[in-house]
């Protein structure tokens, strides 16, 4: 039985459909789950549904369980009626409170039963969120407790409710990978990657990329992956490209309360803004000065609405990018918003081999938009697949220019891919748009392709005609290759 189907891939990013049987709905992914505080609703759940198209939200069952005002109404009327929301409702279990206050007063069995009884569609056991950088012993011990609770969750009577299997393991990639494999083996339905909020709060996007990549190695392609607590739109593209399907956001409301304004490039403070760089109804109808002059509650709600518009807008942008095969170009663009995001993108590219496994073989046109493009999975794949081609002859010309009859065979050369059989020149990714002023890194990647081909054919003699490659690239070409510059006079 599977509740999750992938319709399209781009890198490890997925367009998918999560079927939530208890709610009778299918949720399109990637998506965001707005966090709804049962006590304080900055934007009503019915508004999230009607104005923003929310198909799913998340609320905290532990808060409801502990609330004298809301526990009985939740049990009597059910969550959907209580919150006035007809889509899917996921519930958290109190793990966050556990990590903040050190203890909570429910067991996994109790809170899962309560979640089932209030009509939650996706329930969560009480896992132990182990923060980054703790001792390995602590991470291992807490992981063992989490795993034991996941096994108890499997045995619990949860009816039609989907149940999550959170993946912990702190900042130890091998523990994350093992935890993910164990979570997968439970057969539970949704896989939240836990305790990553501290990494995001500290802008440690490279560490975040490594953690997500490790979890994905353990999970494989089974089930939807939820990046727990990730609510800033600036990092959706990167997280999606690594294979995350679900995000949740309290940020839209929490930031608004502090007059903070979300953009896909980062966060602005209302006091520092003279213009709104956004086309949503809030930003079209108001200036920052007008908003600043409003009463706190009204201002907070309007800012929360803007934050939701930009959040859902970025989710649609990510989906469209996966659909059109341009997700990595989007990640590249978003990475320019902050140097730590660029670190995150570079760390993501360290896992290019992993991303290559699910990447589409054919897309639109590869755009070379930065030196990072030279490290994309498509370049790696091209180099790996050079062993699929035979060479017929002793003298081979590799050239960025035209063919020459003096050679037995002529191959094309194109930075950052390197050499390719000429009849492949019209196929992806060799149709790439590369700037005429290609950078050193593109030349170096092409030189690595040449080196790989030369190594595969020790008995063939090669001549490389390049278009003014950087010296650092020419150094990477094996010595036995004769070199000529395309524009040098013979
Ligand atoms: Zn706006």
UniProtKB/TrEMBL annotation:
Its EC number is 2.4.2.48. Substrate binds at residues 127, 195. Residues 12-339 form the tRNA-guanine(15) transglycosylase-like domain. Keywords: Glycosyltransferase, Metal-binding, Transferase, tRNA processing, Zinc. Pfam families: TGT. Gene3D superfamilies: Queuine tRNA-ribosyltransferase-like. Binds 1 zinc ion per subunit. Exchanges the guanine residue with 7-cyano-7-deazaguanine (preQ0) at position 15 in the dihydrouridine loop (D-loop) of archaeal tRNAs. Belongs to the archaeosine tRNA-ribosyltransferase family. HAMAP family: TgtA_arch (MF_01634). This is tRNA-guanine(15) transglycosylase. The gene is tgtA.
